[in-house]
Design goal:
Number of domains: 2
Helix content: 10-25%
Low-confidence stretches: none
Number of helices: 4
CATH class of the largest domain: Mainly Beta
Strand order of the largest sheet: 3-6-9-12-15-18-21-24-26-27
Largest sheet: 10 strands, mixed
Distance between the termini: 50 Å
Strand content: 25-35%
Number of strands: 27
Structural class: alpha/beta
Radius of gyration: 20 Å
Mean pLDDT: 97
CATH architecture of the largest domain: 3 Solenoid
Length: about 260
Amino acid sequence: MIHSTAIIDPAAELAEDVSIGAYSIIEAGVEIDSGTEIGPHVVIKGPTRIGRDNRIFQFASIGEQPQDLKYAGEPTRLQLGDRNTVREYVTLNRGTVDGGGVTTIGDDNLFMTSSHVAHDCTIGNHTIFANAVALAGHVHVDDHAILGGYTTVHQFTRIGAHCFSGFASAVDRDIPPYFTVAGNRARAIGINKEGLKRRGFDSAAIKALQKAFKLLVKSPISHKNAMQQVEEMAAEFDEVRQLFDFIESSERGWIR
């Protein structure tokens, strides 16, 4: 299961059925769980914990030190969950002491070619990062978010659940859950209606989210009045409640 040209540090911990391709390098402090496949020419540095049944393609760089000038060699970590797909030239960096010391990635995510996750990011489950998506440090991405190719995300930004960004979007503020945004700088253009349909969302909930979007983004009424109406809707729809709570807690401001 391990190619003869691969270099595995004796201090790395690999499950018995992990496969390692030609010329890959696995350094000390790396843990890889059962069923994970590492392609050729992959570099994984520790401390890094990789879960079960991941597939990491050639030329990926996993667990490299953060691109932060304040980093001084501290033993920060990268945590990668289960069943993730990491394509060619993807870079996943460890955390920094100031950011909590760990970059955390959940389960069932797809990182397409040349996407980048910087230090101290937190990524949920079932997300898709299209080609060349780049997250700066300390970004939080919730479940089922989809970032279109060449999307760039400012540090300390929150990406809400089930949202969608168009290609080459420049995201400098929070994306509320269920929103679709696009442009440089990104602007809110609607609810991610098609994505919600594919995931089985109730039609009444989708209509409620569309109404909430119009109140928050397109209505001439004040933001305070819009939020009051959205809060009333939130009593009936959990999805609207999630949207309301996200906006209420936004610190950077959110894309409109």
